[in-house]
Amino acid sequence: MKLEKHEKASLLTSIFFIGAISGYIYEVIFYFLTENRLDNAGLLIGPWLPIYGTGALLIYLLGSKLKDKPPILFGAIILITGILEYLVGLFYYHVFHLRLWDYRHLFLNINGFVCFRSVITFAIGGMLLMYGIIPLLKKINQNKGYYKILYNIQTILVILFIIDLFFSNYLHHLPYLY
User: Could you give the number of structural domains in the chain?
Assistant: First the structure.
């Protein structure tokens, strides 16, 4: 199904925020269940983790051509999310001397920045994204009534996200924004 430019922009924005917000929810629930701690996941104030949003976008953009080959798509998602997680972890560690996550004690980890459990979890989430969420978003985008509602929600989310980036940086929750 061919999307108009505005529909594609809307789809990409939706994918980013669904990934970022669901990633936040996943992290909060995961650490509550495994470590009995309930705190704000990530470096931002708001309920979103941009690495998950970025991962969701990469899964869609790089994996769409593999949608008719689920096993290959699953493997591709493992690679996409594993590389993203490794590079972001390595970047924060070397540039800001921060270890945002530490998988050194987990099975099949690489320098503690990526592990088997994380990429398998991301691959399962990526499959849900590709076969469940994205088809639904495409249908919503093509319905004029729903599209207007979605556009308004996206506008609010983008504004709140930009404000969050500014204030999180200002309040020193982020080492640097630039």
Answer: 1
